[in-house]
């Protein structure tokens, strides 16, 4: 968004459009014919950039998107290829990729009474809670902590496992402070090196996610014992040691035995949306009725966040 504000918006749009055109061409050659339709889902900022919509209002309060509706992309005025559709989104920070994930995990039922959580961890941590006929979504910035660590040399899942090990062996204490011997250069295991900066970045990310999960449950007036299932989305979830994630406080420990890794739900949900027209109205309804929680505006969020920083 900053690059777009600095005059690079058209270059960004063209870069993605070129990549899409190449991908469609490759797919057509593999199939031996042109696909009937292409559907895509991305976060709200990426869809805005792709569609050449102004992203300025996404970067400042009250974070208002130009559009959250389903959109059709026409790569060029004379484009004659398959329809390229973009899924609808929920808010400035909870985009179409999350709407697709919620659809894939069965959150599209309007009067669902069972209490379930959805967590998608990446550069942003998007979360949703469903139950009692409500669906509440929120998001928090995570930075690189879940996608390689601040030093970009430790995969996020390995980072969590290693931090749990470091806690157990006393290399770091509950506050995340490295032993004096490792404080300046970091602690190394094989080719992986973890610095104090890496630890602090993950602490801030996991504290925000845990606080977000707790506030979602609080908004639904439920406790961890009321939650039937927690869906952990993305490739991250496939490799995560759930017990170790609970040990460092990524989510309340009582939820650990309810977590299911569900993989790339954004892709699955997009396939469902594009392949079954009846699901499109269901997804749009899901987006319309979703309540959006701004964590920064929640009373007590800062105190809760600070309380969750320690391991």
Secondary structure layout plus pairing:
Layout: H1 2-31, E1 37-40, H2 44-50, E2 71-73, E3 83-86, H3 96-104, E4 115-121, E5 124-131, E6 134-141, H4 156-169, E7 187-189, E8 192-194, H5 196-219, E9 227-233, H6 235-239, H7 242-247, E10 259-263, H8 265-275, H9 278-289, E11 291-292, H10 301-307
Parallel strand pairs: 1-3, 4-9, 6-11, 9-10
Antiparallel strand pairs: 2-3, 4-5, 5-6, 7-8
Question: What can you see in these coordinates?
Answer:
There is one protein chain. Helix content is about 40%, strand content about 15%. It is an alpha/beta fold. The protein is globular. The relative contact order is 0.14. The mean pLDDT is about 90.
Question: Which class of secondary structure composition applies to the elements?
Answer: alpha/beta
C-alpha end-to-end distance: 33 Å
What is the beta-strand fraction?
A: 15-25%
Mean pLDDT: 88
The ordered string of helix (H) and strand (E) elements is HEHEEHEEEHEEHEHHEHHEH
Q: What percentage of residues falls in helices of 4 or more residues?
A: 40-55%
Please compute the radius of gyration using only Cα atoms. 21 Å
Overall shape: globular
Largest sheet: 6 strands, mixed
Strand order, sheet with most strands:
10-9-4-5-6-11
Low-pLDDT segments, ≥5 res: none
Beta-strand segment tally:
11
Q: Counting H and I runs of at least 4 residues, what is the number of helices?
A: 10
């Amino acid at each position: 968004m900053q690059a777009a504000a600095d005059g690079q918006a058209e270059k960004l749009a063209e870069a993605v459009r070129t990549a899409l055109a190449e991908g469609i061409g490759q797919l057509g050659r593999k199939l031996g014919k042109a696909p009937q339709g292409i559907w895509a889902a991305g976060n709200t900022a990426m869809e805005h950039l792709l569609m050449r919509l102004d992203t300025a209002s996404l970067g400042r309060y009250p974070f208002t998107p130009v559009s959250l509706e389903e959109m059709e992309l026409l790569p060029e005025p004379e484009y004659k290829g398959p329809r390229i559709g973009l899924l609808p989104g929920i808010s400035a920070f909870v985009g179409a990729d999350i709407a697709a994930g919620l659809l894939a995990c069965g959150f599209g039922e309007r009067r669902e009474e069972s209490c379930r959580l959805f967590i998608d961890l990446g550069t942003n941590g998007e979360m949703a809670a469903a139950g009692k006929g409500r669906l509440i979504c929120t998001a928090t910035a995570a930075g690189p902590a879940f996608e390689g660590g601040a030093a970009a040399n430790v995969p996020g899942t390995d980072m969590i496992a290693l931090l749990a090990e470091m806690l157990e062996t006393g290399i770091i204490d509950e506050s995340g402070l490295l032993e004096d011997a490792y404080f300046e250069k970091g602690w190394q295991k094989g080719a992986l090196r973890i610095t104090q900066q890496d630890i602090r970045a993950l602490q801030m990310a996991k504290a925000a996610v845990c606080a977000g999960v707790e506030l979602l449950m609080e908004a639904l007036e439920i406790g961890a014992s009321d939650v039937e299932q927690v869906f952990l989305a993305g490739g991250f979830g496939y490799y995560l040691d759930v017990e170790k994630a609970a040990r460092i406080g990524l989510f309340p420990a009582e939820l650990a035995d309810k977590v299911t890794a569900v993989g790339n739900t954004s892709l699955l949900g997009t396939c469902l949306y594009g392949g079954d027209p009846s699901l499109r109205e269901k997804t749009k309804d899901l987006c319309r009725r979703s309540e959006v929680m701004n964590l920064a505006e929640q009373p007590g969020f800062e105190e809760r966040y600070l309380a969750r920083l320690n391991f």
